[in-house]
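Researcher: Quick test of sequence recovery. Tokens follow.
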């Protein structure tokens, strides 16, 4: 009898650990399935959009999960081009911060693509009921603070498919790093996150961006500056021909800008510079097309700075994001200044701050009270 008890005890001694190990293995095998289902449910809950992920990989040792092939698009999109197409997104616990007593996450995105199809997205406004606060999806997918976000070899594009030929303004090889992205939506205006990015633009221009932001808002608060230098203007011919009826034979295109957004109110400027440019002369043009190109050529000749061979201006922009206005007369005056008084420098001017946008928001609030 006692021997039987010992045998049963010995069996339990081995069976129970084996059962526990079996349960752990089964749970580990099923975990990617449940996480994938959870992520797809989060994407399905964004009003006005539909999304899907192909696969989820789990790494318990790293405290991470990898989302493979995530896409998101508008429900009523006319094209089949996904608005977001993320090849690989690695979401993990940042161990160096964990050792310091902070539980924060790190996101590394490999070759993500954002394609803004004008016909799919153009009619939406920030007051559109279909545009829900998308930050809920972010906080659901990453329920702890994001300390570091990296984008490796990404792409951003603006596409207008109904234009002939199709307009495709894009930036490739986008590398971005953002730090201290908080997951808690804040009522006060703060800019906790640093942002740095580089990319190669259409026409092989060099793009750089620096700034600070509060990402976790339906309309992020930002204070950024960016520059685009030495892009071949001929790469813009589809765009300039469609909207202005002109084509360039050669030249470099540069843009310098600062923008600040507070509670959906934007204040900033865009400073475009066109250097060493020449228009294409078309022998088969109709009379009015030829007249228009002649007028543009004359305008360019008169207002071009003869010292550095640039045509440039500075366009002040300001207003709610639903109704941003550029100031016409200051733009014209700045064009004349560049051509006849003093050429604009190919640098960011550092004359826009986040306080400028905040002051305008407070001024509007006081005006509405009265």
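Model:
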């Amino acid at each position: 009898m006692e021997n039987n008890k010992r045998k049963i005890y010995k069996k339990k001694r081995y069976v129970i650990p084996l059962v526990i190990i079996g349960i752990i293995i089964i749970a580990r095998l099923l975990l990617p399935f449940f996480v994938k289902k959870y992520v797809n449910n989060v994407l399905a809950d964004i009003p006005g959009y539909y999304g899907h992920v192909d696969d989820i990989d789990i790494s318990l040792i790293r405290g991470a999960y990898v989302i493979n092939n995530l896409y998101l698009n508008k429900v009523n999109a006319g094209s089949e081009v996904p608005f977001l197409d993320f090849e690989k997104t690695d979401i993990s616990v940042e161990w160096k911060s964990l050792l310091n007593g902070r539980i924060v996450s790190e996101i590394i995105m490999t070759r993500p693509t954002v394609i803004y199809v004008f016909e799919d997205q153009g009619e939406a406004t920030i007051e559109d009921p279909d545009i829900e606060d998308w930050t809920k999806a972010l906080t659901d997918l990453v329920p702890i603070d994001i300390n570091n976000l990296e984008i490796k070899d990404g792409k951003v594009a603006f596409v207008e498919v109904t234009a002939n030929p199709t307009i495709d303004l894009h930036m490739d090889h986008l590398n971005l790093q953002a730090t201290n992205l908080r997951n808690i939506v804040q009522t006060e205006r703060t800019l906790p996150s640093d942002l740095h990015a580089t990319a190669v633009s259409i026409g092989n221009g060099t793009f750089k961006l620096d700034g600070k932001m509060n990402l976790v808002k339906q309309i992020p608060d930002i204070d950024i500056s960016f520059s685009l230098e030495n892009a071949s203007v001929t790469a813009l011919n589809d765009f300039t021909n469609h909207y202005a009826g002109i084509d360039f034979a050669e030249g470099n295109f540069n843009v310098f800008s600062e923008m600040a957004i507070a509670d959906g109110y934007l204040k900033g400027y865009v400073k475009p510079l066109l250097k060493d440019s020449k228009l294409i002369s078309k022998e088969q043009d109709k009379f009015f097309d030829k007249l228009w190109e002649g007028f543009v050529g004359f305008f360019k000749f008169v207002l071009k700075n003869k010292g550095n061979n640039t045509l440039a201006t500075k366009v002040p922009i300001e207003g709610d994001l639903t109704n941003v206005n550029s100031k016409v007369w200051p733009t014209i005056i700045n064009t004349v200044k560049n051509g006849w008084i003093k050429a604009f420098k190919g640098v960011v001017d550092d004359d826009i701050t986040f306080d400028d946008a905040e002051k305008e928001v407070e001024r509007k609030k006081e005006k509405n009270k009265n």
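DSSP finds eight helices and 14 strands in the chain.
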